[in-house]
Amino acid sequence: MRRYLPVARQHFLAALAGTSVVVKSLSAAAVLLYLLSFGLDTAYGLAVTPGYLLPPNFWVWTLLTHGLVEERAWGLAASLATLGTAGRLLEPLWGALELLVFFAVVNISVGLLAALAYFLTYVASFHLHYLFAVRIHGGLGFLGGVLVALKQTMGDSTVLKVPQVRMKAVPMLLLLLLALLRLAALVESNVLASYGFGLLSSWVYLRFYQRHSRGRGDMSDHFAFATFFPEILQPVVGLVANLVHSVLVKVRLCRKTVKRYDVGAPSSITISLPGTDPQDAERRRQLALKALNERLKRVEDQSAWPSMEDDEEEAAAAAKADSPLLPDPSTAGKSPGQESNLISFQDAPAQL
């Protein structure tokens, strides 16, 4: 194990070298809090405890700090890998400031939703364990957010070839795995809650609220809520999601988004199309280019250079085909009485 640590450290430093100060600062804070956890109970003062977040305590700072608190080595490794992946794949698309906003939105949402869920569980069971013994912390919530963002940007990329797993299926597969581990009592409930609410909050933010050059949100079809589920369940999930969205629009908790597209005409006419988005067009163009490149590569691999013997045979056959009217030298001295197969112009009948 120790001999792999220098190699892992080298790869980690190389991954951080190309990231901004935001990713480096968050990674350094996670490492520092992990080191402090050996001597201090960092989870008590920096993790979200539902009973302390609610009045009259109002430990609201834990909403910002709980995502960086790790008490186990594997949790720290997962958090650092998540931050590095976000810095390499998402930061070039969004920018450092937007990545920091996304980190804050996901972690605050995870803390609030998890605290509310445990409070409702306490109301139903009257067990104080759900208020003061549960501590929500770690980078699993942000991991769920990063996976949702990668589904949005590169959902058709292949993660595993055998069996074939695409990026768009990874968020729900990991949620299913954590649910099975929870049923087997191998992980605690706060792990599943953090990841699940990270998925939900990141999708809501990216779907409706994230600002970019094209406006706000991403209403493309490939990023609908139903696409997170298997195809057999997508019609039912889509119906329920549309009903919930309609209710939220009516109570003004969510606004109806109109997608507008400038067709490049000299006039200021703008066309609104339901169910389409410029990201869909760009995504289909990239898929078409990828398929074309793969097809051209297969054609080049299958084609072979012709041999010299084939060239000589083709040349001889072409020479014979091009000179059918030349007389055969072997028959040059034969009797003139032999009929000729050629028709001369004198033998041809006169044109009427």
Automatic annotation (TrEMBL):
Keywords for this protein: Membrane, Transmembrane, Transmembrane helix
GO biological process: retrograde vesicle-mediated transport, Golgi to endoplasmic reticulum
One GO CC term on file: Golgi transport complex
Protein origin, superkingdom: Eukaryota
InterPro entries, per database record: Rhomboid-like_sf, TMEM115/Pdh1/Rbl19
Keyword Nucleotide-binding: no
Cell location: Membrane
Region spans: Disordered: 300-352
TM region positions: 12-36, 99-124, 130-150, 170-186, 192-209
Membrane topology, record value: Multi-pass membrane protein
Protein name per its UniProtKB record: Transmembrane protein 115
Gene source species: Taeniopygia guttata (Zebra finch)
